[in-house]
Amino acid sequence: MPSPLQMACVLVRSTPLRSRIHPSRILRSTRGYASGSSSSRSYAVAGAATAGAMAALALLGVGYAGHVKLDSQADADASKRRGGRPESLTGSDSRDMMFQLQTNDSPGDNAGRQAESYITMEEVARHNLSQDAWVVVDGKVYDVTDFHKFHPGGSGIIVGNAGRDVTELFRPVHPPGTLENNLAPENFKGVIDPKEAEAARLAFETEQRRLEKARGDLPPVETMLGIEELQEAAKTCMTPGAIDYYAAGALDSYSVVNNRESFRKCRLVPRVLRDVSAVRPQTKIFGVDSALPIYVSPSSNALLGHPDGELNITRGASATGIVQGISAVASYSLADILNEKDQMDEASGRKMGMVYQVYFQRDRSKTEAQVRQAVEGGVDALVLTVDSNVGDNRQSTEKLKGSRFSAEPGPRMGPITETPTFHDPSLNWDDIPWLQSLAQGLPIYLKGVCHIDVGPTGRQQADGQDVRRARDMGLAGCILSNHDPQLLKDFEVYIDGGIRRGSDVLKAVALGARGVGLGRPFLFAQAAYGDKGVIRAVRILENEIVSAMRLLGLTSIDQVDPNMVECLQEMWK
Fold it and tell me: Model's pTM, two decimal places?
């Protein structure tokens, strides 16, 4: 699969020279800046955003990279973040909805009625299949075989961690009694040997102390000179599972590697004897004023790296004037993030840009509730992810978890219909008008577009006009991405994937991108230094962008054009 940069290069290469003008003229959006009232928000989402909290379970057995707060303190912190507002059903005070099966019986009351013998961890480990799934929380064993089929975060998250003790990841993001009070009595199987439970607790606390010490031993954030350096610093204070979650790619990670390499195979062509005493890198991203041609790509589970998670990114993005993309499966609820944004807007006296990622779920009512909450919350645009509705295959993550998969014999001659239960695999172009009706005029962008409109000879392909079709349906733009241009007028194109230097940003802009998204770099930056890490990452990129602009003889970002980039021909062989 070509990288986003390679797709952009092919499109520019096939465009007549007279058309190779800057995207500020070619890709200008017809959508206006839109904002909603920050004081009227819908808090009607039940269970959808909790997928972000339960996604942490995918790293079971390798520890949690944040700090565990007492539940009373966590509630107090959440109330403070909300400014006294009622919490959304997707917020921290309602994460028990994740396992709710509407029963008045408490399975914990049955403990005395169970067999006197303990359940061993060896026995628990045997129940690690989708049709036979047990988990351990606080020394108690639960059968979640039936529940995982209806889990809002997807069946795979639970099944992939069946047969294990999930206490160290479950406890920080759920209030006490979540399982005991909400699972049916028959789902409580018994208790494990206290010695085994104690050993697990001690191991967890030891890991937490190591992480806290490692974060305290980090050098000053001001000494970080590059995005990669921030990433390496973060790895010293993260668990192996958290590192893998942030860094891994699907299968052989070819796309992750190729995205980086493709930028290295293109170079900027300097110009000399130009007055570059004053440089303006500012632009508009998703219709919003931005200090730089970059934005924070929607990325899930920032909480794995730091206890403030996505809130760190909100603070850092606000402080530096760039747009933040919010993941539909963020570890903090949308209500929490929107309230943090409100506080930052009030403190700074300016409105930060924010866009919301949309996943189409099988239960469309949940998708509708999420979108309405985002629109009423005042986001500036919606980003529909279109390349992850059939799941992925992150082999390094599965190996680290010790997951087991089918090796059963027997031919499968009929259609194979098993897909992740959270995402809707039936998502297609006919669903776009429905989302547009919910957006209430907000611009919508497609994230994860890979099929470009132009074939090897420069002629349009009849079967692959994804970008053009998106434009014709009234969408505002596309994000070229492989989740990991015949340029079109009145249509914005962004690139997401592989960018680690400010010079990479300029290469992308020169080839037609309105802006560039970065996800992993900001996850690692906040994992190491919190919001200060996010700010430092932006300052690093800003310095590199300005330096590259001066070397190119540019004083404004809209002066960049394709003639300033030279791509090595062997990258196309």
Answer: 0.68
Confirm whether 6 is domain-assigned.
yes
Q: Which helix (H) or strand (E) holds 157?
A: helix 155-159
Q: Counting beta carbons within 10 angstroms of the beta carbon of residue 261, is it exposed (0 to 12), middle (13 to 18) or buried (19 or more)?
A: middle
Distance CA 326, CA 359 (A): 12
Domain-embedded: residue 417: no
The strand pair at 188-191 and 266-268 is best described as: unpaired
Structural domain count, the chain? 1
Q: What is the DSSP letter of 27?
A: S
User: Could you write out the DSSP letters of every residue in 58-118?
Assistant: GGTTS--SS-PPPHHHHHHHHHHHHTTPPPPTTSGGGGGGGG----S--GGGGGGGS-SSP
Which domain, by its residues, includes 254?
1-402+422-573
- Residue 416 lies inside a defined structural domain of this protein: no
Q: Is 570 helix (H, G, I), strand (E, B) or coil?
A: helix
Dist CA 464 CA 280 (whole Å):
37
**Using an 8 Å Cβ cutoff, are 315 and 531 in contact?**
yes
Distant-in-sequence, close-in-space partners of 157: CB < 8 Å, separation ≥ 6: 54, 55, 57, 58, 151
pLDDT confidence of residue 449? 82
Known catalytic residues? 359, 387, 483
Query: Using an 8 Å Cβ cutoff, are 58 and 245 in contact?
Result: yes
In a domain, 410, yes or no: no
pLDDT per position as a tens digit, 470-511: 888 999 988 886 544 334 556 888 988 889 999 999 999 998
Residue whose pair of structure tokens reads 């680290």 in the numeric block? 400
Domain at 389, CATH number: 3.20.20.70
Q: Which residues pair with 460 in a beta bridge?
A: 454
155 within 8 A of 184, measured Cβ to Cβ: no
Identify whether the C-beta of residue 296 lies closer than 8 Å to the C-beta of residue 522.
Answer: yes
